[in-house]
Structure formats: structure tokens, C-alpha cells
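Crash report, auto-generated. Payload:
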Amino acid sequence: MVSPILELKDINKSFGHVQANKNINLIINKGTIHGIIGENGAGKSTLMSIVYGLYQADSGTININGKNVKLKSPRDSIINGIGMVHQHFMLVENFTVLENIILGFEGELVFGKNLEKAKKNLRNICDTYKLNIDLNSKISDLSVGFRQRVEILKSLYRGAEILILDEPTGVLTPQEVDELFKILRSLRDEGKTIVLITHKLIEIMDLTTVVSVMRQGEIVGHTKTENTNKEKLAEMMVGRSVLLRLDKSFAKRGDVIFKVKNLTVKDDLGVTRVKNVDLEIHSGEILGIAGVTGNGQTELLEALSGIRKVDSGEILLEKIKISDSEKFLDPRQLKEKGLAHVPEDRQRMGLVTDFKAYENLIFGYHDQKSFSSSSILNHNDILAHSKKIMKEYDVRPQSPHLITSNFSGGNQQKIILSRELNENPKVLLVGQPTRGVDIGAIEFIHQRLIDMRDKGAAILLVSVELDEVLSLSDRILVMFDGGIVGEKINKNVTDRELGLLMAGVV
Amino acid sequence: MTTLVDKSKVPWWVSNLIVPLVNLTLALIVSGLFIFIAGENPFEAVRLIIFGSFGYIEGFAYTLYYTTNFIFTGLAFAVAFHCRLFNIGGEGQAYIGGLGVFLVAINFSFLPVPLVWLLSIFGAVLFGAAWAFVPAYLQATRGSHVVITTIMFNFIASSLMVFLLVDVIRDTAQMGPHTVALPKEQWFPGFKDLAATFGIKIRYSPLNISFLLAIIASFFVWFLIWKTKWGYEMRAVGHNTQAAIYAGISPYKNIIIAMCVSGGLAGLLGVNEILGVHHKIVAGFPAGYGFTGIAVALMGRNHPVGIFPAAFLFGILYQGGSEVTFDMPNITRYMFVAVQGLIILFSGALENLFRPQIESFFVKKLNHGVKI
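Recovered output after restart:
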């Protein structure tokens, strides 16, 4: 017999004029894994923040075990048995696991009896759910997957019956995801309730009992997972049917136009992040680089695009050396030579978010004759150009005078993409082209990249989304710990094979 | 509960006119309270301020003279701020700028007067810019924060000028720390001379044609920041340095350009003071205008169109304030420093105190109107 452990009734929440949650009704049953899926900005995180006491709802009621509760702060929620594992872990790096868990719950001035009790208690929890954590290891020595387990352990120790996980797999390797799912299943089997927030359809299908779909602040449907499929869920999420598989012809490979020889790059702290990397890109192909975040992809992109100094090795564009440890061309000179770059982090690097859209649409190209004569910007030409490419790339709203930060993530990305693609570059470096972008825009962006390829551009795609790398690339390199650990032709490769490479296992 | 307002729905005049006016009114109410506590009638004080700054022609001329100085130093701060640099060194840059004016004027006195003027203005800009260059260079290459270095450079400028005025360029016929006067024909035509040509006789006032130079400088700054590639790059570096590097814009180059333009604008204060008023270098002539310029720029939202009224407001306070201290024995000069402080507090530090409430009020009002 299933009984509702958490019940939300008519929850409303708005930020100014934006209604983030509209009349949300949600019943979560004890001992289930309940998935909440939706595009970015659909209101999933807001809803869960209300449940965890970070925000207060404007109206509506929350019942736990049939009893009405007021959740004014996370402490209220913890007392009521709700735990949350955030996307970004809340751990003190130079503390041990034990110290992190009892932080704020020490219970006594000098550690003694209670500490021993806590240790015993924690070991019990670890054994029950097979968490396999050494309580005395320092957080800074643990991998991301283990840090996440520490967060789970912390919630359980504090008596969580309902565990909310916000996009838990974003930073994990496929193997770590498998491990996490095992733990979540055993938690469910022991009677805990899990709420999984995600935008990945595979995880929902794999793990959940019931799924609720959110769109634009509303819940558009609840369904048992066994009664649905990926395509149906995707359609509910975006409100129309989407193409999950990309139509793409075979690459017509031309000559090698971009070549990297034995490249080594250090980061700002002097740590070697890219180690002896060799790669070649032909015109008319997309070379994908798969890898878990932080294995040198960022530094590789920065070095190739002229932002970061090369430590040793060289980079050649159309057989002409553009960078080595002695000298390198800056990004603007590279742009003139036909190398465009869509950076990984659009808000930190790709855009000046306080600028108006038209100012960002010429960013990095403002030196060109069509945009400025001597030192004066030609505003009329810039505006005409902006209107034209905003229409071409379906940037919404089409108002070049709007401040860029007012555009949604997907539209900001389109601004960058239109700017970089408009010049028909010979080489295009793309980092995380669809991170935080909704499905509709992903489709559009992917199609544009394929079009560029078919026009003969050499494209280097760096993405942590394995699906993206698999659906776009013609050839795939896997990066691990700064080096290339494998090359695969994208035809007969499985995500399992890539996952093992990404984890550094083979 | 705090309310978030959809910024794109707020009309420009609410955020740029109503909000500053409310803040200003609040500052004046609190100032009135101070004056009341000091034992004087605040309404009488307001009357005196208005009379002192507008009531008679010489008073108004003084107001505009102060306005001139505040425009220069306000613009100077604003230009650097667009590159996110806090140039606190306007005071020192103005002082050294004055040295530039004097040295050019005295050494090129054989040239025709208009040419001397032009060269002196150039000298002011060059010297002011040079004084800002050192902190700029240190910031760009070594990361030494300009807030610290420019403050230091104010002291260095002050000591250097005292040294020069005592030991090197002092008028040896006099005891005081000042130079000889420039030849009379080099003096900037004053407002008094101008009025005289129209047959109006007025008493002395320091207002001179530098006021026009301040207006030209305002146009220059507007054009530089919003219409040129230089301004575009400076703003890009200011808003997001990493993005600027990504786009191939050099932060190094732009920090130096922004600081030098800023220093040059501060140096122009020397033109007003040396060619227009003192006609020689006197010790300590920048008299705090460099610092007040920071408040002017903040209040004017770093835009020339805002800086002009803000400078005018501070001009009124300076001139009207001195009138009040004359007539009200309980009110000292320092009282008006406190009033300035309150204005800076309310329109700078507490700028957003009532902004959300005011903006959401107008957004609701206006949207309501649309529905009907």
C-alpha cells in the first residue's frame, strides 16, 4: 500500500512578474523514486527550493505524512525529514568526511562520547546503503562521485526520509553514474523516498517509478515511468515533438587544415593541464572531444583560440604556424585568419552581459571595416547587421537594443553562435554549445553546426554531454588527465566504451 | 518581503530621474534636520542657498564656476569607471595638470595668445595624463590597485608641488608659495569682461570661458565612450575582462588609455584655475574638487548628461553654502561638507534603498493604465 509522504497543494511562487511556479499539485509516495523533468527555467529548482525551505511559496500548502507543515528555512525541512543534495556540493574541502557531517551538529564543546556515537551511527548507514566511504579521508582527496556520496550520507545522518537530488549526474562519469544509481535504488528498497530533478530523459527512464513533467512553471503531467517513453516525455517537455536523432549525412572530408603538434599547456597556477596533445582536423568534419569536466578541455580550447599561452608544441592553421611557446597570435588576429571560437562559458567569456545585444553581435569583430571606420563605430550599419542576423538565427526577442542579460540562455547562445558563424570561418572551435540550453534551441544549434560542416568548415567540438558528442561528431577523441587516451570513428562506438576511456580505466 | 522588478518594464525616466530626485530630497530633509539641531531655521537656510546661488548675477556666476570644476573632475572619474577603475587621484592629476598649464603658458609666451591657450590646454591634458599613467601602468602590469596608488599619488603630487613652489618656481619677490603671474594678455576672458562688452557692469566673478571647455569636454566624453571603438573596448574590459581577452581586446592597453584620458580630463581643472582664476600656481589650488568629482560622477551615473546637472547641484551647494555660513553664525563651513556627505550617502551608497519600491510602484501604475 503506497501512502503519500509529501503532498504539495496549489503552490504558487513568482519573482516580480515572472511566475516560476503556477498552481503546482504534486503527490510523492513513500519508497519511490520520483522524477521531475523539464527544460531549463521550467521551475523545477524553484519548486524544490520551496520544499527545502530556501524559498517560501506565495500561496499553497505542504503536507508531510498527511500533516500540514510550514517550512521557513532548511532547518525546518531537515527536522521534517527532508534532505537535499545540491548541484554544487556544500562541503569544507580541508575537513574530513566526519568533520563535514557533524558540522553544525557537534552537540558538545569537546569531542568525546557523542563523536564516538556519531561514528558508529555513520558506519551503520554506510553499511546499510553500501556507500563505502572512509570517514577519515579529507574531502579534497575525494573524487566528485565520492563527494556526492558524502552529501547523501550527511542528509541520511540528519534523518532524511525524503532525499532531493538536483541534477546529480552533471559532473559524473558514466561509471560513477552507475554507482550512484545503485545507491539510489538501495535507498529506495530500504523505504527512503527520492526526488530526482533532471533534464536527462535517459535517467528518468532508467531509474524512476513516477515522473512529473514541468513546463513554464506548471506541471503538465504525471505518469508512471513504465507507461511512457523518451519521445513522449520530450514532447511533453517542449510542448511539441522534437527530433532526438539528428539527420546528418556522411562527412565529406577534405584536407587537414588545423593541426596541433605535441601541445602542452599550463594553467594559471602552473599546473600542466594539457599534456602532449596531437590532433588534426580536416575540412568538412566535426572532431568531438569527450571527457569529464576538468580534464584539460578548457585549457586546450583556450590555447587553440589564442587566449592562453602555449607551453610547448605548436599549432598550425593551413600549414602556417600560428602558435608555439615563443609567440602566439591573439584571438583577434586568429579571427582574421578564419578561426572562430564559441567559448565554453558564454556568460563569463562569450558575452558582455551588460552590453546591448547589438554590441555583443560585433564583439571581437568590431575592427572590421563594415562596423567601424578609423576609430568610430558605424551604428547604422551595426544595427542593420544585427537585425539581419538576429532574424536569421531566430534570436528572440529580436530587439538589438535589449541588454543581453535579459535574453534567455538559449538566445544568448544563439547571439554568440550567429556572431561566430556569420563570418564563415575555416576552423570553428566550439565548447559546450548547448549547456543550459532548452531542447528547441539545442536542435537548432546542432543543425547549424552540421550546416557549417557541410559548407567545409573544420569543427572541433568539446562537450561533456556524451550524447551531444555522439550525435554530432564524425570522429571522437577522449581526453583524460590532459592527454588524448583514445580515438574512435563515430560509427561503431558505444557510450560504454567511451565512458571507460573518460574514466581513465583503459 | 523583497520584490523583484522586471527591469525591462521600468521606464527610463523612473530609474534615471524619479529615483535620484527622491534620494536627493531625502538627503536634503536629513540635512535640514541637522541645521535645525544646530539652532537655525532650515527653510531660511534653503532660501539663502537659492538666493546665494541664483539670486544675483555674481552669485550665479560663482555657481557656474564651481560647476565647471566639478564637470572636469566628474568626467575624469566617469571615464576611468567605465573601465571599472576607481581613479581616486583626480586631485593630484589636477594639481600636476595645473603645472603643465603654467609651464607651457610661461615658456611659450612669445607665441600668439590663442595658440598659447591651445598649447596650455594640451599641456594640462599631457601632465594630468602622465600623472595617471604611472598608477595605470602599475595596475596593468603588476596588479597594484589604482585605488591605493592614485591616493598615494595625490600625496606625492602635493609634496612635489610644495617643493616646486617653495624651492624652484616661487616668485622670489614674494614670500608666499606661489609663482609669478602670467602675462595679463594670456588670462582667459572672464564673465565680467564678457558682460562689459554688452554694457553690463558687474563685480568680480571667477567664471570664465573654461565653462565652454567643460561643455566641449562633456561632448568629447560622450562621443568617446559610446561612439568610438576605444570606448567600446574600454567598456568591454570594464564589464567583463575575460570576455575582452576572448575577443582579442587588450585589458593592458585599455586600462592605460582609460586612466590617461581620465587624468587628462582632471588636468583640465588646472586650465580653469590657472588661466581663468589665479593666473599663477598657488599652493593647494585643487581644493578638494578632485574628490567631490567622484560624488558628481556617481550621482550623474557616469554619463555626461547626468554629470552636468550633478555638477550644477554641487555648484549650488558650494556657492549657496558659503552664503549660508556668512549669514548664519551657527552654521560652519564644515556643516556643508556634512551636507555634501549626506548627498553622497543617499545618492551613492544608499542609491538602491528605495529603488525597488519606487520602480515596482510605477510599473504597477503604468501597467494598470494600459489595461484600462
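Post-recovery validation: Chain A touches chain B at residues 15-18, 305-307, 330-335, 341, 343, 348-355, 359, 363-364, 366-367, 372, 375-377, 379, 402-403, 406 (CB under 8 Å).
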